[in-house]
Amino acid sequence: MSTLEIEPQGVGAIDIEVRLLLVCQRTSILTLTSDLLGNYVYELKLKAVQAGLEHPLQFDVPLGNRHTQKFQFVHYLPTKVQYICELTPEAVEDGFIVEQPKVVANAADLDGLEVEVAVTFEPWKISKDLSGIMKVSHVQGGIYSVKLLGTCCPPIPQGPIIVKGATSALNFRNVFNDFVEYVLQVDNPAFMVGKGERMAPKKTTKIKVGFKGVLGAATNGKLMISCPAYGPWIWVFYLQGI
Question: String of b and e for 52-62 (b: at least 16 CB within 10 Å)?
């Protein structure tokens, strides 16, 4: 309940704040009461439409890498609930991942509570136009949707990787959605690797690299990893033997 004072022959104004979390149409009654003038009754017609897309999340990674960002939304319910996080089929196809399909939101006050959802982009193809939509929803808390935009460029060189003796290794991840064969090559015979590596989809393995230096010879080189079944792309790792 609030009080409104109006000067004689004056005009009064009331700020009405409405917070509708779900798509709906409804009515409400506002009553102004004066001991001298009686009651003034107003019917309020309220309508809520589905909210549009939130500000998009933009991802940009080289093939073979992954990038995680957090989508933020405001939870207004005064109770603790779980929101469901869903990706559209095209988002899944283009390499977007929601690690946790449900996110917990604690009870909020009148100003709301900010909640975060982690989204990872791990593409498997080179493209400047990868996209999809993530929807975060609760039956009472409402629906929040965000556009996901992704760009994937060719692999970039990494290193230098220090190689000591025959026991060194580097982590390499198969970002493709299939079991694939990777071809391994080095440009300096002082470094030793296997001829190839068969890897499961979306798995990381340790690729063994050995080094046997020769007096007066170069102690640096490159390891080149390719996957002919998926295109001409080459992952280059600079090596430094000690």
Answer: eeeeebebebb
- Say if CB 84 and CB 98 are below 8 A apart: no
Same domain, 61 and 143: yes
Whether 147 and 230 map to the same domain: the answer is no
Q: 176 and 201 in contact (C-beta within 8 Å)? A: yes
pLDDT of 24 higher than 80: no
pLDDT for the residue numbered 171: 92
User: Quick one: 190 and 230 in the same domain?
Assistant: yes
Instruction: Indicate which CATH number applies to the domain containing 88.
Output: 2.60.40.10
Phi, psi (deg, nearest 5) at residue 91? -65, -45
Q: Is residue 35 over pLDDT 90? A: no
pLDDT digits (tens, 9 = 90+) for 89-141: 999 999 999 989 999 999 999 889 999 999 999 999 999 999 999 999 999 99
- Token couple for 70: 């957090």
Output the CA–CA distances (angstroms, integers) from residue 203 to 159, 173, 175, 231, in the order listed. Answer: 21, 6, 7, 19
> Where does residue 177 rank: exposed (0-12), middle (13-18), buried (19+ CB within 10 A)?
exposed
Which position has the token pair 């009461």? 33
